[in-house]
């Protein structure tokens, strides 16, 4: 995997912290929490997409695809946070409550689980490659 520079690593960390702050602040129903989460998600995803894998391992490539899917889920969760504050999709109230209102949490949880799993497995696979 391509290593991030020091500044990129700091931006990556800042994005993760902003995502946590935005998600935690949403429990207090603050108006600014989706903005903080969205900025954090954009920074986090942008820096994660900077990391490339130049090797030939099929397993690591598959795990990288899982990370990209989870990155997309982070961005969709940010969009759903905005949609949870107001019904800007124009849905009737029953569909809004059923499909949109606070369902960003489900997307965030799935994305986080994919990130943890894929990151752990990539680390194991890369350590196996170094031993060979």
Please sum up the structure shown.
The chain has about 130 residues and is mainly α.
Rg value: 17 Å
What coarse outline follows from CA principal-axis ratios? Answer: elongated
Strand content: under 5%
User: Which percent bin holds the helix content?
Assistant: over 70%
Sheet with the most strands, sense and barrel status:
none
Count of runs of 4 or more consecutive helical residues: 5
By DSSP, the count of extended strands is 0
What letter string, H or E per element, gives the SSE order?
Answer: HHHHH
Average pLDDT taken over every residue: 91
Uncertain spans: none
Can you describe what's shown?
Helices cover 77% and strands 0% of the residues. It contains 5 helices and no strands. It has helices spanning 6-26, 33-50, 58-85, 93-99, 104-131. It is mostly helical and 132 residues long.
Topology:
Blueprint: H1 6-26, H2 33-50, H3 58-85, H4 93-99, H5 104-131
For the structure shown, list the relevant keywords:
132 residues; mainly alpha; 77% helix
